[in-house]
Amino acid sequence: MRALLYVSLLVVAHSIFSAVQAISEQKTLGIENRSMPLDISLECIVGCLLSGFCYLKTCGDFEPISIIEQLSSRPYESYEHRPNFVLFNQKNALPSNSESKRPAAVARGEKSAAPEAPSRGDKKKST
Questions:
Q1: Per-residue b or e along 44-78, where b marks 16 or more CB atoms closer than 10 Å to that residue's CB
Q2: Which of 5, 38, 82, 104 is most deeply packed, by most CB within 10 A?
């Protein structure tokens, strides 16, 4: 069927080439009535119809339009799987960068054994 598709596309290409050649000949001869010859028109129509038919046959089977026929063959568990549906507003799903850098003891609320370094505003003046 694919070979027939390629042949029909060649027929369409040949009809286009023939049409261009016929128009240029009519211009050269100075013919006022520039109508397409019947054999070129028929060749183009037959080539287009045949290529469309062959293309539809090589595509494969069509899926049914009815949604009930498509969904009846799927198991119930597959309805939960939606790869194109993603939520982006779940802020608590993953820890933020600041929480992931903290030690586990601090994250649990325990005091650390090491003394904390004084901040810039808490410097003691030595006298």
A1: beebeebbeebeeeeeeeeeeeeeeeeeeeeeeee
A2: 5
Euclidean distance between CA atoms 116 and 120, whole angstroms: 12
Count CB-CB contacts under 10 A for residue 12. 18
What distance in Å separates the CA atoms of residue 126 and residue 124, rounded to the nearest whole number? 6
Contact 36, 19 (CB under 8 A): yes
The tens-digit pLDDT sequence of the chain (127 residues) is 889 999 999 999 999 999 999 999 999 998 888 788 999 999 999 999 999 999 999 888 877 676 666 667 777 666 666 666 566 666 665 555 555 555 555 555 555 555 555 556 555 555 5
